């Protein structure tokens, strides 16, 4: 996947926000709308409940209020539906990530805080999408798998660049940057596995806690 690059004041390159698969996002903290079309929403619900291999086209069609021929009018196969779900998940997260980074300015600490908040909010509010995107990679064919991994790497590269900028500026004190990035990503994406609305903390409160944890992990000064 080829991507153009832009340079922020901090000297860190981030992916071009005009990438063709990324829609402009006005408020990256707003999750009031569900942009998934009904057939993809039905597919997500079925995949979460039964897994990709345990879900049939007939089950997705029934959940979406369609006939089986009606389903095939939209997607030629169950895998094509899964690919569409994964593309939506990664594009939504990436668009929000770029919007969060744009509002954070050039300071690495502010950028890191916005990035972690964005990751936590996404995995709290879009936990079903995040779960499918992480757990059903094995169900993709080689081409679709390569595309998904490229999108995942593009997403992680933003955090890698933020951490690298913080280490160069002295804002962060961490010996092994890539290991620190992996730990942060694992911590934030794991929210999708357990977070449920109505629990002990609201999503925003959890994000605030994770920002503090992240800054401590990086030895923020």
Give, in order, the helices and strands.
EEHHHHHHHHHH
Shape: elongated
Rg of Cα set = 18 Å
Strand order across the largest sheet: 1-2
How much helicity do the residues have?
Answer: 55-70%
Largest sheet, strands/sense/barrel: 2 strands, antiparallel
What's the rounded overall pLDDT mean? 90
Look at the helices and sheets and give the structural class: mainly alpha
Low-pLDDT parts are 1-18
End-to-end Cα distance: 36 Å
Number of helices: 10
Proportion of beta-strand residues: under 5%
How many strand segments?
Answer: 2
Task: Sum this structure up briefly.
With 221 residues, this protein is an all-alpha fold. The chain is 64% helix and 3% strand.
Describe the 3D structure.
The chain has 221 residues and is an all-alpha fold. It is 64% helix and 3% strand. The chain has helices at residues 38-50, 57-64, 68-74, 78-104, 108-125, 127-135, 142-169, 177-189, 191-194, 203-217, and strands spanning 5-7, 13-15. The two termini are 36 Å apart. Residues 1-18 have low confidence and may be disordered.
């Amino acid at each position: 996947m080829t991507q153009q690059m832009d340079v922020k004041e901090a000297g860190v390159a981030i992916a071009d926000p005009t990438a063709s698969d990324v829609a402009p996002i006005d408020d990256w903290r707003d999750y009031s709308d569900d942009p998934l079309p009904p057939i993809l929403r039905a597919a997500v619900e079925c995949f979460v409940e039964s897994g990709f291999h345990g879900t049939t086209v007939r089950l997705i069609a029934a959940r979406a209020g369609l006939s089986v021929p009606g389903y095939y009018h939209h997607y030629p196969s169950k895998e094509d539906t899964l690919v569409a779900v994964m593309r939506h998940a990664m594009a939504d997260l990436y668009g929000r990530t770029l919007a969060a980074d744009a509002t954070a300015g050039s300071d690495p600490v502010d950028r890191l805080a916005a990035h972690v908040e964005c990751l936590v909010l996404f995995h709290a509010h879009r936990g079903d999408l995040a779960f499918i995107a992480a757990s059903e990679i094995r169900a993709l064919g080689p081409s679709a798998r390569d595309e998904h991994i490229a999108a995942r790497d593009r997403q992680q590269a933003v955090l890698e660049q933020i951490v690298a900028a913080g280490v160069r500026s002295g804002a962060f004190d961490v010996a092994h940057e890539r290991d620190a990035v992996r730990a942060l990503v694992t911590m934030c994406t794991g929210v999708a596995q357990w977070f449920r609305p109505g629990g002990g903390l609201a999503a925003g409160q959890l994000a605030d806690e994770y920002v503090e944890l992240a800054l401590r992990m990086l030895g923020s000064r």
